[in-house]
Amino acid sequence: MTGESVGIAVAFSAGLFSFLSPCVLPLFPSYVSFITGMSVADLTADLSPAARRRVLIHAVAFVVWMVVFEKSPWPTLTLVVSLEAIFLSTFVMIGQNRQAAFQQTKANHDFNEQELELKTNTELTREIHALTTELHRRIIDTPAG
Q1: Cα–Cα distance measured from residue 36 to residue 55, given in angstroms and rounded to the nearest whole number
Q2: What letter would DSSP give residue 39?
Q3: Quick one: which of 15, 68, 76, 126 could link to 84 by a disulfide (CB 3.0–4.6 Å)?
Q4: Residues 32, 90: Cα–Cα separation, whole Å
Q5: Are 97 and 44 in contact (CB under 8 A)?
Q6: Is the Cβ–Cβ distance between 70 and 5 less than 8 Å?
Q7: For the segment 116-145, what is each residue's pLDDT rounded down to a tens digit?
Q8: What gap in Å lies between CA 89 and CA 95, rounded to an integer?
Q9: pLDDT, tens digit, for every residue of 52-87?
């Protein structure tokens, strides 16, 4: 292994560890927002193929800029770490978007089930009241005899 490939491997590993660091995760949506020119709300609400294509186009433009115009190895290391952050944070946002959709579907289902249960309980309570009233009328209101 050459010194440059070791440096790239170390930079990649450092980028991966820093990405997985809990104190850094909240920064990635704003980072991807800055890179793509889209707001964080747009990125999390709409990760359609068009939004993903926009992330990819900006990432490719970043790579071309770094490879063509920067000549020392440090920008290349920055390129590797930055691309890693771009794509990993995009995947995190895609996962969050899918999880949010799943949670919304589950919440809707739970709400419908609870509404049905409430309706059934209300009907049962009305029936019990009617039966109690009828029993009261037959036993108490009618004279013995």
Answers
A1: 6
A2: -
A3: 15
A4: 7
A5: yes
A6: no
A7: 999 999 999 999 999 999 998 888 876 665
A8: 10
A9: 777 777 777 777 776 777 667 666 667 777 777 777
